[in-house]
Amino acid sequence: KAGVTQTPRYLIKTRGQQVTLSCSPISGHRSVSWYQQTPGQGLQFLFEYFSETQRNKGNFPGRFSGRQFSNSRSEMNVSTLELGDSALYLCASSLAGQGGSGANVLTFGAGSRLTVL
Amino acid sequence: DAKTTQPNSMESNEEEPVHLPCNHSTISGTDYIHWYRQLPSQGPEYVIHGLTSNVNNRMASLAIAEDRKSSTLILHRATLRDAAVYYCILRDNTGKLIFGQGTTLQVKP
After folding, report:
1. Do B91 and A102 touch (CB under 8 A)?
2. Which residues of chain B neighbour A58 with C-beta distances below 8 Å?
């Protein structure tokens, strides 16, 4: 079965612009979470969506936002880009239920690599 | 958020077993212990997870200490393809995965 698909894989933006990244989860997976990976900070949790609702949020400024559609596809948006937003943005999906569970396994996409100039 | 501590790097010879340690002294009763690995230029990949009992799957084994304050990922026969960054993570029922810095495993032929 198809894995988690992230688009675009690579993109270059300039400071002040905004960017939208897309994530298509594995069929049947209703939970989608997003992570930012940088050499200095490692992998950091951004947010998680389940059934079109944000269920969890990490410690990122309001410039980072996301949403989930009824087909479980998700997008994240970063507005007013800064140089420090250059990173690999990873999306993961899981079979999480309504209440969530620590046992749920995540499947990650290959990521979208954003470079801000 | 409960944290994990792992060595920055480890080396192994090909076809030998590898034991990757992880300390999680602040683990709570409902936290699952997950291991993921990340190969260069790829997203993290699930390896194994457990709650209290030791676990085995086709990729690895997970040994969990009786007090759950530490665990060890065991790769029974390391191959060159196992060279990656290995992350030990505590996952609670909120949906978050809090990653540490991970252990970079080098496998020598």
Report:
1. yes
2. 96
